Amino acid sequence: MPQLNPNPWFFVMLISWLTYSAIIQPKILTFISTNPPSNKAPTITNTTPWTWPWT
After folding, report:
1. Which residue among 7, 10, 33, 42 is buried most deeply as judged by most CB within 10 Å?
2. Tell me, what DSSP letter sits at residue 23?
3. pLDDT for 3 beyond 70
4. What's the domain of life for this entry (predicted)?
5. SS3 category, 2
6. Cα 6 to Cα 3: distance, rounded to the nearest angstrom
7. DSSP classification of residue 39
8. Cα 22 to chain center, whole Å?
9. Predicted confidence band of residue 2 (pLDDT cuts 50, 70, 90)
10. Is 5 left (phi over 0), alpha (psi -120 to 50) or beta?
């Protein structure tokens, strides 16, 4: 079965991941996030428990 021969496909996968890691990933990481995390404390809402009619 030629599909199980890893010789050509391993090289293609290796080159693809090296290209992604060396070229594409640094370009993506330089983008500024449109929703940066903030140091604002989360608001705590007070909720009332639901009263079930069968309890």
Report:
1. 10
2. I
3. no
4. Eukaryota
5. helix
6. 8
7. -
8. 19
9. low
10. beta
CA distance 9 to 15: 10
Q: What does the pLDDT look like over 8-50, one tens digit per residue?
A: 788 889 999 998 888 888 888 888 777 777 788 878 888 888 8
Distance CA(12)–CA(17), nearest Å, equals 9
Give the residue from 20, 17, 23 showing the smallest Cα distance to 9.
17
Residue 16 in 3-state DSSP?
A: helix
Structure tokens at 31: 């983008």
Query: What pLDDT was estimated at residue 14?
Result: 92
Task: Please tell me the total number of residues recorded for the chain in this structure.
Answer: 55
* Element at 6 (helix H, strand E): helix 6-19
In the block, tokens 């983008």 appear at 31
